[in-house]
Amino acid sequence: MINPSLLLRPLTKSIIHQMVRLLLLLLFIVPVSANGGGVFFNGFTGVGGVNLSLAGTAKITSDGLLQLTTKKTHVKGSAFHPLPFRFKDPTSGKIVSFSSTFVFAVRSKFKQLSGNGIVFAISPTINLSGDTGSQFFGIVKDTDLGKPTNRLFFVELDTIDNQEFGDINNNHVGFDINTIRSNSSITAGYYTDGGRRFENLTLVSGDPMQVWVDYDGVTMRMEVTLAPINLSKPAVPLLSSTINLTDIINDDMYVGFSSATGSFLTSHYILGWSFQLNGNTRDLEISTLPKLPPKSINGGRRNLLAVWISVGVTVFVLALLSGVVFTVTRRKKFAQVYEDWEKEYESCRFSYKELYKTTRGFRTSSLIGVGGFGRVYKGMLPRSKLDVAVKRIPHESMQNMKDFISEVVSMCQLRHRNIIRQHGYSRRKGELLLVYDFMPNGGLDKYLFQHETPSSSYRASLHWNQRFHIIKGVAAGLYYLHEEWEKVVIHRDIKASNVLLDQDFNAHVSDFGLARLYDHGSTSMTTKAIGSVGYMAPELATTGRITKATDVFSFGIFLLEVVCGRRPLEVELAEEKRVLVDWVLENGKRGKIVDTVDSRINLTEQGNKVIEEVELVLNLGLLCSNPLATERPNMGHVIEILEGIAPVPDLSEIFNTDA
Ligand SMILES: *[C@@H]1O[C@H](CO)[C@@H](O)[C@H](O)[C@H]1NC(C)=O
Ligand SMILES: *[C@@H]1O[C@H](CO)[C@@H](O)[C@H](O)[C@H]1NC(C)=O
Ligand SMILES: *[C@@H]1O[C@H](CO)[C@@H](O)[C@H](O)[C@H]1NC(C)=O
Ligand SMILES: *[C@@H]1O[C@H](CO)[C@@H](O)[C@H](O)[C@H]1NC(C)=O
Ligand SMILES: *[C@@H]1O[C@H](CO)[C@@H](O)[C@H](O)[C@H]1NC(C)=O
Ligand SMILES: *[C@@H]1O[C@H](CO)[C@@H](O)[C@H](O)[C@H]1NC(C)=O
């Protein structure tokens, strides 16, 4: 697909150019009168076309260039102002002063060879059709050379060394009267430093250059000056000569350009032109002149066969290249890391390509969450049609990868209604991907804390029965991890955001063991290595040992979160409320523990049942988050308390100690 703005851009640009030109034309262009007057073309565009008489190969390009010859051999082209100018003062009969300036460029297939050149001509006719090209510039017939009846004067920019006509070299500027044998000529270049220094210019360089032609009717001084386009007119002319034009030209003469090519493929361009009788010519605005085509193209029309061949070759090469690029990017896009030791985990392994497809290229519309460990995308497994969540975890250090993967794979065998089902993993360079069951109701944290920051993802809060059900589910899941499965699994990061809810608001504990990835990683990850701030058991700071009891501590904080509907640490709150566990404890000591309950929980709903249950959970939360690890219950005991099998813990000891 082509981006439409790419197509529009050059279009609008050219429209702007046209408008600028039109403005310039309206401001400056002058017409065209037989007596006096002049011509001003700052680029060759205008309403209704450009009023020039074109002949031969001459044309106006869409860019506003006057192209005298196309890149062909032995062709000629000319462009003249359609009306003649009166060069003789009608009363005195003397030749009037005139001046002209133009910018030209010669583009040749070969760097140093071209042909034949451009002339700026004052001609009695614009019908040059019978004249030959090549060294005659299309301006004069070879059989008419030197005839006084030619009534012809021109300035030649000659790029061919025709010694038979007295050319000095293949890069010169000359004055010519009725013939192509120059009356006087000089190597192309310009004087600087007040005439003390001469700089060569190469006419066929392809670079645009500016020419000034000035004739003084009184002194009969004819001057031509040349300069690179970025220089202003040099003070000293390149070539000057006294020429009495009286007997050479007619009263009324046409002005314009002619050009011809010989054996070399050459394009001759005029970018802008200004001419004025009886006065100084108006300066061209160099910066707004049309742009030449890129040098490599040379602006010429190619041989049709060559075009077809090159088009064919280009298409072939492009097809080949895009094939290669496609294959390479495809390979790179789907490249994955696969090591020998992973062979035994084959059944648990997803190809990156499969996950890429299932999440529709990890596009933003598939993004369902951004967690502490990475982004989570929704997808569907093609065969089972099962909705899954794919978590992409950036992971630079690969040192514990082997251990971690073996743990991930063993987690794939965990089966419990409150433990998220893990389907497998995939690996790329610097990235680990885990595939879980998709949980339509997302993270529990959204329902608990969202009221603090209303947003588009706002969820209605959960009523107490739902919360209590979730709490029991998480407890059951943790009990399974700690006690029931064949291996002890420490979750390491119990918190509300790691509890996911299915469509019936059943709790599924997720992200177990992920913190382990960072165990021996960089030091900046240390807090993640042992859990999340606010949920970490105090002994972790000293021993760093992860135990079932550290999970129980976090679970205690989690219980308080669910009942109080707030995060464990909220620095913007008043000091006594800031740390959740301290605030609940203080209220408990005063016998007002229920004051800490989330105001969205209706405590009077079912008689005293809700109050009893929230008190139970808050007390259990405090018990689990006891600073002394040995005082915390294990998950089996927790479940007994929650189910009413074991008595509600007596917290008087905790409440009566002064912290
Ligand atoms: C071009 O100039 C000639 C002579 O002035 C005039 O007759 C003709 O209408 C002009 N053409 C355009 C398109 O302006
Ligand atoms: C141009 O000159 C040729 C002869 O050289 C003549 O046949 C032709 O009619 C002329 N065209 C015009 C427009 O004068
Ligand atoms: C230059 O032109 C003048 C007439 O204007 C003539 O007398 C002179 O011989 C010419 N010089 C050359 C070298 O052709
Ligand atoms: C300028 O060009 C002339 C003629 O081609 C040559 O003799 C001369 O050495 C050149 N000068 C410089 C500075 O290139
Ligand atoms: C003109 O352009 C040439 C080459 O493009 C550069 O070397 C030179 O310095 C320029 N001169 C000025 C006055 O900008
Ligand atoms: C120029 O040439 C004409 C005709 O030959 C002559 O009458 C006139 O005096 C010349 N002018 C000068 C300044 O020599």
UniProtKB/TrEMBL annotation:
It is an enzyme of class 2 (transferase). Keywords: ATP-binding, Glycoprotein, Kinase, Lectin, Membrane, Nucleotide-binding, Receptor, Serine/threonine-protein kinase, Signal, Transferase, Transmembrane, Transmembrane helix. PROSITE patterns: PROTEIN_KINASE_ATP (PS00107), PROTEIN_KINASE_DOM (PS50011), PROTEIN_KINASE_ST (PS00108). The chain crosses the membrane at residues 305-328. Its EC number is 2.7.11.1. It is a single-pass type I membrane protein. The keyword Aminoacyl-tRNA synthetase does not apply. This is non-specific serine/threonine protein kinase. It comes from Zostera marina. The lineage of its organism: Eukaryota, Viridiplantae, Streptophyta, Embryophyta, Tracheophyta.
